[in-house]
Amino acid sequence: MNRRDLLPSVLAGLVAGSTSMPSMARLAGESDAERGVSEFLALDPVDNFRQAMRLQRSLEDADDILHWYHFTMVAVPLNATPKPVVRWEGIEFSRHQKIGENRYRMHGHNLSFPRDLRSGEFVAEVRNPVTGKRVPVPPMALTQDPGLVRSPAGVITLDKPSAPPRPDYKVLRRERGLVKVDGIRVPPDSWPVTFLEMGTEATPAHLFDDSSKKWLPTEVSGAYVFPWPAWMQMGDAPGHMFAAWSGCKLRSTEELPAEFHARAQRDFPELLRVDRRAFDRPYPDLHPG
Amino acid sequence: MLETLRRLFKPADEPLDAGRRALLATAPAGVFGMAAAASLAASAPASAPDDDGFVHFANPQDKFRALFRLERDLRDEGITVSTYQFITYALPQGARPQPIVRWEGMEFSYFRRVGALTWRIHAHNVSYPRDLHSGKFVSQVLNPFTGDILELEPMKLLNDPGVLHGPQGYLPLDAKAVNWLNTYHVLRTEGALVKSEHIRPTPDGWPTMFIESSCSTVTRKDFMDDSVTALPFQTSGFYVFPFPGWMRMGERPGHMLGAWSGRRAVGGPRDLPREFRERVARENPELLEARWRELDKPLSPLIKEALPA
């Protein structure tokens, strides 16, 4: 099952109507009563965790999860007008392994290439709209993720494996032909203070309702707040960056857009492959929670 | 609209209902007009790549048609109803950002073409606060930074002065000078989907922190069908705004952030989520109707002068 195979289902859930609304509504299998559906799913913590896993990753004991997205970064100087800076196209490629009942260990990496805000062409430098300077923007290859353990109790980041899990926020809701999970990522104390990440992932309701499906196709959107990156050359100026993304979950790197895939294959071929060696490292002091 | 934004979001004396409306009103969602299809044909892009990529247009007029068709309707007269849920976060300078409250809301806009490719738009918004975790309607939330219990009222934004929208950008109807506000808009294809990314910053020189960005998704099939004058969409986005008065943050530096997920209510108010629609019908039934009288108000001489032929 890949995203393109599932596209008719995704679209049926996606489309809330159109000039061709009657036909699309039939495609989505909606009755008039279903059109007004919007409800929060009251799930116990374990089921909430498992259903969120299906949406965000998969319930397989071991799996590789690929997200592809575009995102735009915005500079938010204190007491000044926020300004868009640069667009990125990227992937998050992660893998997980079940290590206990409803307990999964995860590792992953990210790779993103900067693109011009208006033309969409790959770029190597942009104008910092706050300072007016041209600044070089390198590709982002984030490969130092320490990994984490996720369970209904929350999240343990493996740079502090003995710390208790931090509860995280995941609310599931049904909205017409879609089921959505709204998530807020709680960073560890060791992360920069100015950090926040939130997102919404949506899947067609009829696929969600089929419990035999451990992996669900999703459209994803979200945003995160983070400190000035070094390449912005902002010095001690107060403020931060903000980025908003839109993308989807894919089944394999073969589904990536050709241009992105070609560049990644040329410049960072190892980041298009699954490397499960991180799981070889034991964490004897891992918190049991 | 920009004047409205500035008024509404002045940090010091923020009215309770000043939260979301103004920013949304600068770029609200789409609509299905009830009138017969207008003579304006939906615009086709100059290029529509088969593979994933950016969509390029032959001229600004075609690009505007694509935007207006996504966010509203190319018919001469129509309405737009969109429904969404959004979570607001507080970001005090130097402190860990925290979520504050979830909202469920709608934007209802009504518009009429008043010149070549230029529409006059008015809108109202209604949003109700909901508990972050249970999703139930609430009237109080905790401010985690001050420990205060905050009293929340429904957000009803009813004083929109209106705006002109055309290929030049946006021009608020209460503007004191003719400065069309341009925005950042990019369309791109993702397989069978077309995504519209729209960033609406405020002009240079504004003293406070505003920006709004959205990504709306439609099907390529609908997008390429000229007979579809108003595209059904799913949308997500965010906006940045100063601390509203109800947060009682005093002079503390920082700002708020809201992130939403929603869709066009293609069938109009009857297409709104049932619990939300029933509450509006109970408390403010008049807000489930278009307020067409807003469009009868005379335009200022300045705005009349700015209207394209």
Describe the structure.
The complex is a heterodimer of chains A (289) and B (309). Chain A has one domain (3-274). Helices cover 17% and strands 38% of the residues of chain A. Chain A contains six helices and 14 strands. Chain A has helices spanning 3-14, 21-27, 32-35, 45-56, 205-208, 258-267, and strands spanning 38-40, 62-77, 83-100, 103-115, 125-127, 134-136, 140-142, 148-151, 154-157, 169-175, 178-185, 196-204, 219-226, 239-250. In chain A, strands 1, 2, 3, 4, 7, 8, 9, 10, 11, 12, 13 and 14 form a twelve-stranded antiparallel β-sheet that branches. Chain A has a two-stranded antiparallel ribbon with strand order 5-6. In chain A, a hairpin with a 2-residue loop joins strand 10 (169-175) and strand 11 (178-185). Chain A is globular. In chain B, strands 1, 2, 3, 4, 7, 8, 9, 10, 11, 12, 13 and 14 form a twelve-stranded antiparallel β-sheet that branches. Chains A and B meet through helix 1, strand 1, strand 2, strand 3 and strand 10 of A and strand 1, strand 2, strand 10, strand 11 and strand 12 of B.
List keywords for this structure.
heterodimer, A: 289 residues, alpha+beta, 12-stranded antiparallel sheet, 6 helices, globular, B: 309 residues, two-stranded antiparallel sheet, disordered N terminus
Topology (elements, then pairings):
The complex is a heterodimer of chains A (289) and B (309).
Chain A: H1 3-14, H2 21-27, H3 32-35, E1 38-40, H4 45-56, E2 62-77, E3 83-100, E4 103-115, E5 125-127, E6 134-136, E7 140-142, E8 148-151, E9 154-157, E10 169-175, E11 178-185, E12 196-204, H5 205-208, E13 219-226, E14 239-250, H6 258-267
Antiparallel strand pairs in A: 1-10, 2-3, 2-14, 3-4, 4-7, 4-8, 5-6, 8-9, 10-11, 11-12, 12-13, 13-14
Chain B: H1 2-9, H2 21-26, E1 53-54, H3 60-71, E2 77-92, E3 98-115, E4 118-130, E5 140-142, E6 149-151, E7 155-157, E8 163-166, E9 169-172, E10 184-190, E11 193-201, E12 211-219, H4 220-223, E13 234-241, E14 254-264, H5 274-283, H6 301-306
